[in-house]
Fold this sequence. Notes:
With 525 residues, this protein is α+β, with helices and mostly antiparallel strands.
Amino acid sequence: MTSREAQVMNPQPHAAQTQEAPHTDADVVVVGGGPSGLALAGELARSGVRVVLLERRMSGVQSRAGTILPRVLELFDSRGLAERFFARAREIRDNPFVPVHIWAGMKPVHWRNLDTRFPHRLILPQSTTEEILTEDCEAVGVEMVRGATVAGLVQDEDGVTLDVDMEDGPARRVTARWVVGCDGGRSAVRKAVGIDFVGRDETFTGIIVDIAMVAPWPEVRKVTDNDRGWVNAYPFARGDDPVLRFNIVHVDSRLAAKNEPVTTEEVRRDLTEILEMDLEFDDLLWASRYTDAMRLADRFREGRVFLVGDSTRIHYPASGVGMNFCLQDAFNLGWKLAAVVKGQARPELLDTYEAERRPVVEALLESVNAQCAVQFDFSVGGIAYKRFFERELMPLPDVNRRLALDLNGLAVDYPTPAGSHRLAGRRVHDVELQTEQGTTRIGELLRGMDFLLLDLTGDDPYRDSKHGAAPVQVVSGVPTLCPDELRGVGSLLVRPDGYVAWAEDGPGDPARADAAIDQWLEVVR
């Protein structure tokens, strides 16, 4: 950990700021109404922050992303949203809980190795994810503005002013204390504040295509490769209008330019040669090309402007996990920005967003490079290696678990000061607790979006702790089925995004717990 990160994690307490913020149209303007922008806006508004969301599109998007992984399901559950996603996924498949996944096109990665309440993923179109998150934003009071394109941005020490072109009316000027760009790889916000986007151009293209048909094979997901290429196929809609989604990288088609139209004849040839079977279908419902271009923003913040999700990076959609990492960005920044806006935390807390998320994103890009190198080597040697890895190495429990962590963005722990407890910076297990009020679990307790000061001994040493207006909920109980990593742990301080801020073995000590809370929040006792 750098000295700067240590300072961020251990900021010096000082008196709460009393200076009233200047009037603005919003506390926070979120630019971009994709999954990460919607999730962030919902997090902020649920905490009582005034939020305006600007979205260029007037209607939904054709779905590129189609997978929600266990870690994001945990986050949705911690806000009471998971069941909405399950219900919509059941419209595609009676049992929507898929227990396995792919890595570098190989399978299976077993979610049961992840130690999670949700040992499965969902196949769900991105458009449906956006619909659910939009409904949530509307319910918690986000002001949604569609047809809005950012044309200019200036900021000073007090706030940010956005010039916005409107598709259905005159241009607007919007002011805010903070701005978050969630506006994708071509981010207007990133360009406006002069953040460089560093990396490389594409070396090949793939095809994503939706075809109206029922799968002619029994498995839910069909993954096939040979010396002609690779195909991944799975259902995207069912009922009266069944749809199969195909991802294709073909040895010839991958040489096409990204803007070259995808034809029915090309898709038919690619699928026949890779699947080695003839599929009966008519025209394509939708098709697009994607590339392996890779870029990373040289910083995630400029003054009062932050970048989240795809505005910070672009990459090949290896294993279909990209949206899941973007959503985790949103959950990381959301509670922090809300706490600072509301005067519950010092502004230095916001520096932890990049300190925590950049290493995760860098690890993601490294994984994508590794997966592409293995997955798209269609040589005799490359195919032999994949068969060996899939047959001999993937079944090993330690290997399979490591791949599951990698896919969920959990292989990198958040940085913590030297001498921190072994659990600090790690995602917390969603354990059940027996309390005086009955049985509860951490995932349910997090729905209040407070820090959780948990006594796991049942002795309630924090019953008299005072935290003023700071968002801290104190709970005393005993784990019903204690996981190995919590054995001997007497106290946990859990952040609103489900990561351990502080932990201690043995009986609880109120003074040390208070000191841990003071590192994160502005507490007046």
